[in-house]
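Structure in, sequence out. Go:
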């Protein structure tokens, strides 16, 4: 990462609540072609989330603790604050001297931008302002939120404007929290109804919906210079497994998440 930081733009996309099993099934079935063409080997890496709900997980990720590989470690991290005795800081780790990754990247010249999705990014109160407040520039509007069937298209349009407005010489760290997979997601499944509610199938349909527009986001992120992208979930969610619904619980479908990182160079 010490060779990438400073030479590349950076993109972090969290597909909020996306389950590993659903993500992997859709990749294997060819149902998310725009994402799958960037996934190493065409599939997702199985990892463990750093938190069981959005706020906790993003606080950890912004501190450099991305989802952890599911195999036994320790696993070297891409980013880390300088911390004596850290077993996951390696030679290739980008180490910063600030409390979090966002300010660490700003300190080396990156313009940091947040395009929020779920309520923890809505800036409508003190709690919803903590995470976007880490960034130099942040955006949220109701069209980006969980209740909007076109939330991701609106977020992508915002990202395109952000990229177009930034001076070419300025490095960019763009973060997008994708709300489309979060409940309610029933409206992404043809024939589903509000009364029937969300299901594992509507969760999958929401990922297909996101994939249809993901190409535009990646093209924008890679339009200025080569971009290093991280696409992952912050946690999964339950749809009736062992009687559980939702997240903020210690269930396998919540803790196990898909992860990928790759280079995007759409401009060349």
């Amino acid at each position: 990462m010490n060779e990438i930081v400073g030479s590349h733009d950076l993109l972090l996309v969290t597909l909020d609540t996306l389950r590993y099993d659903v993500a992997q099934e859709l990749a294997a079935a060819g149902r998310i072609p725009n994402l799958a063409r960037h996934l190493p080997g065409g599939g997702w890496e199985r990892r463990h989330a750093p938190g069981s709900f959005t706020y906790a997980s993003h606080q950890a990720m912004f501190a450099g603790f991305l989802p952890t590989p599911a195999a036994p470690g320790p696993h070297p991290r891409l980013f880390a604050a300088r911390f004596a005795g850290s077993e996951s800081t390696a030679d290739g780790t980008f180490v910063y001297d600030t409390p979090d990754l966002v300010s660490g990247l700003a300190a080396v010249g990156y313009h940091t931008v947040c395009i929020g999705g779920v309520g923890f990014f809505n800036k409508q109160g003190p709690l919803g302002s903590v995470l976007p407040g880490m960034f130099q520039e942040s955006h949220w509007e109701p069209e980006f939120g969980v209740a909007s069937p076109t939330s991701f298209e609106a977020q992508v349009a915002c990202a395109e404007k952000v990229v177009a407005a930034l001076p070419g010489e300025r490095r960019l760290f763009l973060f997008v929290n994708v709300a489309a997979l979060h409940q309610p997601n029933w409206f992404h499944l043809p024939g589903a109804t509000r009364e029937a509610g969300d299901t594992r199938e509507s969760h999958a349909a929401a990922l297909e919906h996101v994939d249809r527009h993901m190409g535009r986001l990646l093209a924008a992120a890679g339009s200025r210079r080569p971009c290093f992208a991280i696409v992952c979930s912050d946690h999964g969610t339950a749809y009736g497994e062992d009687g559980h619904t939702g997240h903020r619980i210690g269930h396998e479908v919540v803790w196990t998440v898909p992860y990928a990182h790759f280079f995007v160079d759409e401009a060349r």
